Amino acid sequence: MKNEINYSDAIALLDKYIKSPALRYHNRETEVIMRSLAKHFSKNEDLWGITGLLHDLDLEEIGENLSAHGYRTVEILKENAYEIPEMFEAIIAHTEGLTDAKRKTDFDIILASAENITGMITAYVLILPDKKIAGIKSSSIKKRLKQLRFAASVNRDFIYDIEKTGLSLDEFLDISILAMQEIAEETGM
């Protein structure tokens, strides 16, 4: 069993299991946000980034069976000879509310926050006339968070929980927007 995964192997798994461009963009956005947050918290950027990249690896395979979400991703990783407990726990924990999983660690909370903020930021960008992420402000996203009908499927509680890690919501939004701006050309935003 391997206790770490390199980036090219992670991309190969993503290529094998995720075909939807929108889901691929979501995974990449979560990856870059997680890398930026790892840097902020002085954590392992590769571990955090790859966890973000692979967190929804099972979604196309499981379809409507959301009770398997996260668990199937961990099975896929184990089938490929990986044993990375910290990654596995965070991937399963981000499914809290869909499964019986619970977020316990800062890493769990941060992954759930990061993957949810991608949806909020993307939804906001899509209502802009130019549909570009350049120049958007965290205050605009913060305002939309309060509008529960906007991007209704985004779990706001998971986003607000970022403050449990010692990071303010404003800092989190700034970090997330900057990270997503870095790959805007790739994601078409």
> What's the gyration radius in Å?
16 Å
Q: Outline, from the CA principal axes?
A: globular
Total number of distinct structural domains? 1
Counting DSSP E segments of at least 2 residues, the number of strands comes to 0
Number of helices: 11
User: From the helix content, strand content and strand pairing, which structural class follows?
Assistant: mainly alpha
Q: What is the strand content?
A: under 5%
Q: What is the class in the CATH system?
A: Mainly Alpha
Query: Residue-averaged pLDDT, rounded?
Result: 96
Q: Give the SSE order as H and E letters.
A: HHHHHHHHHHH
CATH architecture name? Orthogonal Bundle
* N-to-C span: 38 Å
Secondary structure: helix percent: 55-70%
CATH fold description: Hypothetical protein af1432
> Low-confidence segments, ≥5 residues, pLDDT <50?
none
What's the main sheet like?
none
What does this protein structure show overall?
There is one protein chain. By secondary structure, this protein is an all-alpha fold. The chain has one domain (7-187): Hypothetical protein af1432, CATH 1.10.3210. Helices cover 62% and strands 0% of the residues. It is globular, with a radius of gyration of 16 Å. The model has no long low-confidence stretch (mean pLDDT 96).
In short:
The chain is mostly helical. The protein has helices at 7-17, 21-41, 45-54, 59-62, 71-79, 85-93, 106-127, 138-145, 156-160, 169-182, 184-187.
